Amino acid sequence: MKKKKHHIKTDDTGEKKSNKGDFDPELLRMYLMRATNPGTSNKIERFDDTVDLHIEKSQQGKIPPQDALFIQLENFEYALDKAIASGKLEFRVIHGLGKGKLKEEICKILNKHPHVRSYENDYHSRYGYGSTIIYLQ
Predict the structure, then answer these.
(1) Does position 11 have pLDDT exceeding 50, yes or no?
(2) Which of 17, 100, 112, 133 has CA 20 to 30 A from 52's CA?
C-alpha cells in the first residue's frame, strides 16, 4: 500500500497553501475559544467575578429540557476559558440547587482541568449552596 504524499503548494504571492486535509492548529484553537466568531470581538472582554448558569439568564426563548444541560455546560466552559484568559485567580459560578446534575458535571470538568487549583461549594449569603467558587492557577 502506498503512502499518500502531502505536497505543499504556493499561491501567486509565494505563500504556502495547505492540502485539503490539512488544518491550521492556531485557527482551530481560535474557533474553539470563539475568537473568530463575527458576533464577538477578538479582544479579551472584561470578565465578571460571578457567572450565572441559570438557563433563563443565558438563553432567550424555550429550550427543550434535554438541551438545557448541554447549553449550561457549554456556557460554563466558555466562562472558565474566559476567566483563565483574563488572568482571574478566582470566580464564582451560580448553578442553583435543583437535582444537582449541573453541579456534578461542573465538578467533573473542574477535577480534570489543568488551570483549576481548587473549588468550594460553601454557603454564600446570596446564593446559598447553589454556587461554587473556583480558584485558578
Answers:
(1) yes
(2) 112
The answer to whether 40 and 34 are in contact (CB under 8 A) is: yes
How far does Cα 132 stand from its chain's mean position? Answer: 17
Structural domain containing residue 69: 9-136
Total count of domains within the chain = 1
CA–CA distance, 2 with 57 (Å, rounded to integer): 55
Q: Is the pTM of this model over 0.70?
A: no
What pLDDT shows up at residue 41? 43
User: In the sheet where 50-52 sits, what is the strand order?
Assistant: 50-52, 90-94, 131-136, 116-120
Would you say the C-alpha torsion 88, 89, 95, 101 has a positive or negative sign?
Answer: positive
3-state DSSP percent of the chain in helix, strand and coil, to 5? 35, 20, 50
